[in-house]
Amino acid sequence: MRKNENVIKEIDSFQTIPFRLNDIFTIPIFIFIGTVILIILNPEEKSEQTYYQLYYIFILPLIILMTLFLTLGRIFIRWHNLKSLKYILTNQRILFIDRQFNNVVKAFELNEIEIDFTENSSNNGYIIIKVPEPKEYVDSLEIASLFFTKRTRGIPLFENKNIMYNISSVRLVFKKIIETQKNIA
């Protein structure tokens, strides 16, 4: 902790497997895509013996592993992060702290971030921390936006690392973070 930095709140998170709404869509989609690829690449009876060997030794396990990672692996990564991290709100930063070693894994300056939250019916949810991109990077995106649609569309292949999962009373925690951000300015 820095000088003049005080802990305002240790943010509680409950330790269940963190499913998100997009998992309802991504898991069946990735299983379907993996199955289609397996069917397309399946060797015919008249294929050479070397293709059979290549298919069953290399292609089949690779596609199965990739499908498992894109479905269950994503959930396991979220669950592991949830089990290994605790979140602390200070008067200057949001800290992601390793539960086992008690060291700071990530720190976000409150005056440099934008936050949003998603809440489910039981008042629990997750808080998304967005660090704005540098101006030079944003300027280069203006040219790209002439040819491509919005960058955030589609199914993300990798998990966002700046999310606080399974937060109890997420709306109250969100309001507390916003209030702390306003006190800095």
Key terms:
43% helix; 185 residues; alpha+beta; PH-domain like; single chain; 3-stranded antiparallel β-sheet; elongated; 2 domains; 4-stranded antiparallel β-sheet
CATH structural architecture of the largest domain = Roll
What is the highest CATH level, the class of the largest domain?
Mainly Beta
Quaternary structure type: single chain
In what range is the share of β-strand residues? 15-25%
The biggest sheet, with number of strands, parallel, antiparallel or mixed sense and barrel status, is: 4 strands, antiparallel
Q: Percent of residues in helical segments? A: 40-55%
- Low-pLDDT runs of 5+ residues are none
The tally of beta strands, per DSSP, is: 7
Number of helices: 4
SSE class: alpha+beta
Strand order of the largest sheet: 1-2-3-4
The span between the termini is 20 Å
Shape: elongated
Do you know the CATH topology of the largest domain? PH-domain like
As for the number of domains, it is 2
- What Rg, in angstroms, do the CA atoms define? 22 Å
Mean pLDDT: 82
The run of helices and strands is EHHEEEEEHEH
Structure description:
This protein is of the alpha+beta class and 185 residues long. The protein has two domains: 7-18 and 85-184, PH-domain like (Roll), CATH 2.30.29; 23-78. The chain contains four helices and seven strands. The strands form two sheets. It has a four-stranded antiparallel β-sheet. The longest helix has 36 residues, at 49-84. The radius of gyration is 22 Å and the shape is elongated.
